[in-house]
Design a protein that fits this description.
- The longest helix has 19 residues.
- Helix 2 crosses helix 4, helix 3 crosses helix 4 and helix 5 crosses helix 6.
- By secondary structure, this protein is of the alpha/beta class.
- It has two domains: 192 residues, 3-Layer(aba) Sandwich (Rossmann fold); 69 residues, no CATH class.
- It is globular, with a radius of gyration of 18 Å.
- The strands form two sheets. The chain has a six-stranded parallel sheet, sandwiched between helices. Strands 5-7 form a two-stranded parallel ribbon.
- The chain has nine helices and eight strands.
């Protein structure tokens, strides 16, 4: 089975693109094997370097580092957590409210506030950077598009922000044909932060399966803070063949791609859908 993987947030690595792709592809193939899908030929499309702010280095992740627009994305994400919501206030107070909410979520996930803050800030920064119309977005789409064209996969597995990129590329490219799209931990249905910013825009409040994907299946841990609202993919998008829950077992690693790639639910999904698709 030939797989193109599209990674999510927080994957910036040092080194040459080709070396990073080889390393990540080997890891994804090993995770799939551990989960019960051996023998997959995997090519991960790496794009994290293209979403870094010009002249900025490092992986700092403090709420104070967020711009107003990035903070709004984080507030939209928190709006799905059933927590008290910040209102229009001065930036300092707004930041305080965001951090208070973040600490509440960290406590519920049994992880340190520092880890949770890094995760949330990376999400806000990378999502905002990608969704802005401009060179970074175009470069990301071009690189991922090329990976799909060259590798000609049976399955595209897109995780987190990668599912947003896959959705838009497979909508906008006439030269692509993907038998099966699998989205993992996808924020595609997240109101305001992502759903209402998609291209193409939802029609009368609904998105749809990209025409370049023959079939579309989604898999999400119900405790994944990014894959919200629960079952939102099948509720807000037409043409979704399967929208299943899985458990990644480790609460504080609710969004890590290796947890998704190793879950038997993904192996079952690939086996059942690939058989009917005659994926070899």
């Amino acid at each position: 089975m030939k797989v193109v993987g599209i990674h999510g947030i927080g994957n910036l690595r040092e080194g040459e693109e080709a070396e990073i792709v080889e390393e990540m592809s080997a890891l994804w193939a090993a995770y799939l094997t551990d989960g019960g899908t051996p023998g997959s030929e995997v090519r991960v499309a790496y794009y994290a370097d293209l979403l870094q702010e010009e002249g900025h280095q490092g992986e700092d992740g403090r709420i104070e580092d967020l711009t107003d627009a990035e903070s709004e994305i984080l507030a939209d994400l928190f709006a799905q957590q059933e927590l008290p919501q910040p209102v229009g206030t001065a930036q300092g107070w707004f930041t305080y409210l965001l951090r208070t909410q973040l600490q509440d979520i960290a406590a519920s996930k049994a992880c340190s506030p520092g880890v949770m803050e890094w995760f949330m800030v990376r999400f806000a920064k990378e999502v905002h950077r990608y969704l802005q119309i401009g060179p970074a977005r175009e470069a990301v789409q071009k690189r991922v598009h090329e990976a799909i064209v060259v590798h000609r996969p049976d399955v595209v597995i897109a995780h987190s922000l990668g599912s947003v990129i896959a959705y838009e590329i497979l909508h906008g490219s006439n030269d692509l044909h993907v038998p099966l799209l699998v989205t993992l931990g996808s924020p595609l249905a997240l109101p305001k932060a992502i759903f209402h910013r998609l291209s193409p825009s939802p029609d009368h409040g609904r998105g749809k399966r990209p025409p370049a994907a023959r079939r579309w299946a989604n898999l999400a841990d119900p405790g994944d803070l990014v894959a919200l609202p629960v079952k939102g993919i099948s509720r807000l998008f037409d043409g979704v063949e399967s929208d299943r829950h899985c458990s990644v077992h480790q609460t504080y690693r609710f969004h890590h791609v290796e947890q998704y790639l190793q879950t038997p639910k993904l192996a079952d999904l690939l086996a059942s859908l690939s058989t009917s698709n005659e994926v070899g």
